Amino acid sequence: MSAALTRDLRRAAGDAAVLDGDLRHYGHDATEAHGIAGVPAAVVLPSSTAEVAAVLRACDGLDVPVVPRGGGTGLAGGAVPLGGEVVLGLERMVAVRSMAPEHWRTEVEAGLTTGHVHRLARESGLLFPPDPGAAEQSQIGGNVATNAGGPHAFKYGVTGRWVTGLEAVLPSGETVTFGGPVRKDVAGYDLRSLLIGSEGTLAVITAVWLSLTPMPEARLPVAAAFASADAGCDAIEAIVASGLVPAILEYLDAGTLTAAGASFPAVLPPDAGLLVIAEADGSPAEAARVREELLEVLSDGALSTHAPQSRSDVEALWRWRDGVSTAVAAHRGGKMGEDIVVPFDRLREAIAATVEIGARHGLDACSWGHAGDGNLHATMMLRRDDPDGLARAAAAAEDLFAAAVELGGSVSGEHGLGWVKRGQLARQWTEAALDLHEGVKRLFDPKGLLNPQKKLARPS
Amino acid sequence: MSAALTRDLRRAAGDAAVLDGDLRHYGHDATEAHGIAGVPAAVVLPSSTAEVAAVLRACDGLDVPVVPRGGGTGLAGGAVPLGGEVVLGLERMVAVRSMAPEHWRTEVEAGLTTGHVHRLARESGLLFPPDPGAAEQSQIGGNVATNAGGPHAFKYGVTGRWVTGLEAVLPSGETVTFGGPVRKDVAGYDLRSLLIGSEGTLAVITAVWLSLTPMPEARLPVAAAFASADAGCDAIEAIVASGLVPAILEYLDAGTLTAAGASFPAVLPPDAGLLVIAEADGSPAEAARVREELLEVLSDGALSTHAPQSRSDVEALWRWRDGVSTAVAAHRGGKMGEDIVVPFDRLREAIAATVEIGARHGLDACSWGHAGDGNLHATMMLRRDDPDGLARAAAAAEDLFAAAVELGGSVSGEHGLGWVKRGQLARQWTEAALDLHEGVKRLFDPKGLLNPQKKLARPS
């Protein structure tokens, strides 16, 4: 770190905000297992929007690039300082600026964990519905910057739907706010939505206004195992066609069940080809009604069903579901997953394509995910004793992206492009659209100092 | 119209697409009563995306400005050719490109009326929730371009929430698509949301992919009259605080009831200071439950309640609500309304401010609107025999905008800036944010040929 940089960062955020010592923690995110890591030029942890602005002004003054960092749970390398950037961590910005349960809203700083936001809402009988996998570690600012999803997105939408306003600092150090505590606003271009999902490449989000909704009193899951992926997909389509609106509509394929099924908290037929999990929520009577109807639709053709009602049994099912990703990783020793998304009616093709693509590259592949949203966690299982497995998985990923676009979908439904998928947007957007993407980046960050090389529209 | 323009437009869209004769219909929108009208240089009605692209290329080649036009129901002058532009009407682009009721989605061209989209969904047991006032005349493309709202936005969100993808033509004539039939997509910057609500100033929307949802089986309204605006606002806040989620949560103030109350289809106390209308929806049992709870909360402090259950009585109530705007206009001979929005808890102040601002300018003022969203139709009543009433209403509008921003809100919750509110964004955004707004316009429309002078961030 140059003396000028140290001096200016300390001046901007205070001596204690500029970390000394081992900075490795800030050199990677959840893609570390795939060898994606860098070394920050410096790590600075400002504790206020004014300090974030001062840090960005200092870096702009020295032409030093900056990587904004939330909880470090990203799965696309979006927060990794691969070019020796300054890492700007939001973890000290954790104030709850306002909480108005009677008006269903809160304003929180970016560094608050998403789990904290969940609890804040729950304590007032409210729900913040977005529930990405790593909610206890991920920060709300990072979730907004990636427009994170999760199982409840089927009924409740992704993170962006719940953001009525945000405060952000531009690379120049200027602070802007778009929206606020209002539920509707069509005065300006929707720059709030433009920043949501921009993965820290346009501005550093420092605070968000969130809309909340009353917590459903009851949440009842229904799981059903089917003999084949096709039979399971038939059932998934039957639920949607029946006009039921489950809060969650998930699936796990045969390979996933092979890796994770042993700890399923009920009887799981050994020959299950697909497991469907739906959740009914609402008032106790409404949830019970939807649960009954889900059971009726799913029972038709199922090998078995499991529809727990006691709190402990319900929790056991979700705990198992939460552990699936870890179980799949443990099955062979590692995994590499992609979050492709396809139109709902192409789900069965995407499930089959994942397995076929794995086989083509000599890898066991499986998938699970958000069936109702057509969003797969298409996963290549890696063996520890397979030195070039990672390279073959990377090649398989390219085929997966191509398959997603071929099926009318997108290369990313949840994780974003980050570093891992930089340039993949060119598969699905036309040249004119890619030009606009790059133009937006230049407009917000003319010097290219904010999270460089991330979320690139075209291969560099 | 110059000979070159005629020739190029005919070449682009066919001879029949370029209108001859009286073009006055295309010279105004719903703001005509306030004297806002222009004369188009030409009117062209392309019937395909390729023709729209050809028209825009032709106009770009001649440096001729273009105003895109939907149903002409706008309330901000956004589709009015005030500088003698070419009007590009979408009314011949009415194809339903796909309809998949079993997957809750449709792809329709921009010129289809929103009412047609409602019926298309309803025929399949589905709901397209956005319900702006002029749905039978407004076109879905225009509704997306203004991100239209309506009563059901309280529970179901505004138009943009239901748009998963759109096809649009840039001023250069390039066609782009952002999103599609997928329910999630975080690969690129959210340029879909950026075009939603951009009021035809960035691109011409030619088709949209819409998400639909199962039609609630039952919809039951509850109306309650209160002695004062404060008592009514207490009740509105009590509903939200109680954790009920009505589909609709509307209010009408004393002045509105004076103008429109005579035809209310039930007994309305003569001294009513505020009327609240909520709607319970869902399965028959769920709607009945929510209706009961709404009645319980609203009865506390109400002068009277009206909660019809028969289809004809329910329809009579909504028919009355739909006619309120017309009744208010008829009361004195005319009206001028603004769609300000404030944080939910500032609604009562905005209601009071509207009346005070009217009085300050010598005008009877009233308001009604989407209470749950804090979105007022703040309205100045105009007398036919008051020659400078319009000028005083315009001055009052400036005060209303200032009041909305002062209360933490926005100058527009539904109608957009258009021509009427051009420059008003400067009240609520900082200089850096306004610069970005203008930068986005330059990025999409470097020559400034698309809907010039509309949705300006700063006063020109």
- The count of β-strands of chain A is 17
Question: Which stretches of chain A are low in confidence, meaning pLDDT under 50 for 5 or more residues running?
Answer: none
Percent of sequence in beta strands of chain A: 15-25%
Structural class of chain A: alpha+beta
Using only C-alpha atoms, the radius of gyration of chain A works out to 22 Å
- What fraction, in percent, of the residue positions of chain A are helical? 25-40%
Largest sheet of chain A: 7 strands, antiparallel
- From the spread of the alpha carbons, the general shape of chain A counts as globular
Instruction: Report how far the terminal alpha carbons of chain A are from each other.
Output: 27 Å
Mean pLDDT score of chain A: 97
What's the quaternary structure here? homodimer
Biggest protein-protein contact in the assembly: A-B, 92 and 91 residues
Note the total helix count of chain A.
14
Strand order of the largest sheet of chain A: 14-11-13-12-16-17-15
